[in-house]
Amino acid sequence: MRRLLPVTDLTTRAPRPEAASDREWTLDELAEAYAYPGGERPWLRANMVTTLDGAAQHDGRSQGISCATDMRIFGTLRGLADVVLVGAETVRLEGYRPARAREAFAERRAAAGQGPAPAIAVVTASLDLDFSLPLFVSPLVPTLVITGAGAPSDRVHAARDAGAEVLFAGEGAVVEPARAVAELAARGHSRLLTEGGPRLLGQFVAADVLDELCLTVSPMLTAGGAQRIATGPGVTVPERFSLTSLLEEAGFLFSRYGKI
């Protein structure tokens, strides 16, 4: 059974009540449920999955704790985004490929002034990446590499030679999250999505630049020492987010939280 769970004072629309049936939610319904807010300022959302006991991965990857509907939402969020930000470690572990154009979102993207697919932006200090991968040499739109001004010059040249666009968002080798968001916004990219990994999300949380979290809670228990959805230095005072929509299917909860 697929259903929209009641949440008081929703600030976003969710699939219509008649979607509470055994049929799949349509991509249009999901696109409405996860639409970016209006306005000119950049909006950074994260999309992550976690088990009941807080594991963001199983055997080093998120696929084992996901489900088909989670992947449909994953695709929907990409279909709405200008840029997908991802950490270098996640690129290596998950075997990231370029985002593809999807006919289901073509009209919506054209109306919003977006290109056929979102650009992937890899956040990395060392640029320790394989620039011969399809992510760099054959994307539909050029892949972005976000690094610090002190990044190794030979790796910067290697990225550019592979066809990537290199953006500098920090002094030294460190990428400053707020500057990364500002650099993307300056290029007209305001609908931002990060898919992790946990270290990158932790940096966005610590820098107070995350506007929204789309979190799938998987009805699984894994135990072990898997990472949480966000790792790294903690914040001094935990920041409160508000639940704005909640969907359920087969025990999976698809939640959306916004900064208060």
Describe the structure.
Residues 7-14 and 16-20 have low confidence and may be disordered. A 10-stranded mixed beta sheet has the order 1-9-10-8-2-7-3-4-5-6, sandwiched between helices. It is α/β, with parallel strands linked by helices and 260 residues long. The longest helix has 13 residues, at 68-80. The protein has 8 helices and 10 strands. The chain is globular. It has helices spanning 27-33, 68-80, 88-94, 103-111, 134-137, 153-161, 177-186, 198-206; strands spanning 2-4, 43-51, 83-87, 119-123, 144-147, 165-168, 191-194, 212-218, 241-249, 252-259.
Keywords:
260 residues; 8 helices; alpha/beta; 26% helix; 10 strands; ten-stranded mixed sheet
Layout of helices and strands:
Blueprint: E1 2-4, H1 27-33, E2 43-51, H2 68-80, E3 83-87, H3 88-94, H4 103-111, E4 119-123, H5 134-137, E5 144-147, H6 153-161, E6 165-168, H7 177-186, E7 191-194, H8 198-206, E8 212-218, E9 241-249, E10 252-259
Parallel strand pairs: 2-7, 2-8, 3-4, 3-7, 4-5, 5-6
Antiparallel strand pairs: 1-9, 8-10, 9-10
- Helical fraction equals 25-40%
Counting helices, strands and paired strands, the structural category is alpha/beta
From the alpha carbons, calculate the radius of gyration and give it in angstroms. Answer: 18 Å
The dominant shape is globular
Q: Distance between termini?
A: 31 Å
Low-confidence stretches: 7-14, 16-20
Element order: H for helix, E for strand: EHEHEHHEHEHEHEHEEE
Sequence of strands across the biggest β-sheet: 1-9-10-8-2-7-3-4-5-6
The biggest beta sheet reads: 10 strands, mixed
Question: Would you count the extended β strands for me?
Answer: 10
Roughly what is the average pLDDT, rounded to an integer?
89
